[in-house]
Amino acid sequence: MAPPLLDAVLEAHGGLERWRGVREIAARLRSGGFALASRGKPRAFRAYEARIATAEPRVVLAPYPKAGRRGIFEAGMVRIESEAGEVLARREDPRAAFGGLRRAVWWDRLDALHFAGYALWNYFCAPFLFRHPGVTAREGEPWEEGGERWRRLHVTFPPGLPTHSREQVFYFDAAGLLRRHDYTAEVFGGWARAAHYTAAHRRFDGLVVPTRRRVYPRRRDNRPRPFPTLVWIDVDDVRIT
Prior knowledge:
The protein is mainly beta. Helices cover 15% and strands 41% of the residues.
């Protein structure tokens, strides 16, 4: 049974009924940060549009990796296409490829596409993603930060669902809005413990979306380190269909 907090959180972000009427979220984004730079992709996602499906793990990024190309992320595959639909590069089961030594120091375009694709799908589908089959949530102890008291949902994702790590924690303020998200970015390594902050929430056609995201390293005492900014994401506009 879902905890009562989840119902309040879903309502604060637009409500489950509104979400069920959404097929796709199209967002204009700018992003970057130390994490991508550390893998040789500092400018891979500086300005682009992401078309995010809500019913299944699928994201289309354009332009990527350059003008006239688009990147397509799906649960078990990534590919790069021309504007005409010609497949220029493709990789099946891209997550399995991250175990190699090369990916500890450098990513190719398909590696970066997998990371960006699954991350954006999770970010834009949460908290409604918590109703996805196989996902479970329970309320944990509250957390004090910055003079505020945030309630927390401990969420477990099923094997096979593309995400950062199976165990994640989401923090919500008194209004029910997402303010922080903790996980381990396993494609970087088991050491990549992250504290991901969300702010500047805006309503777009009934859905409430944070338009500013900043990710920092997370210490063992659960506090964030102020430097470096691992990932930053700014949302300029959202269209919902």
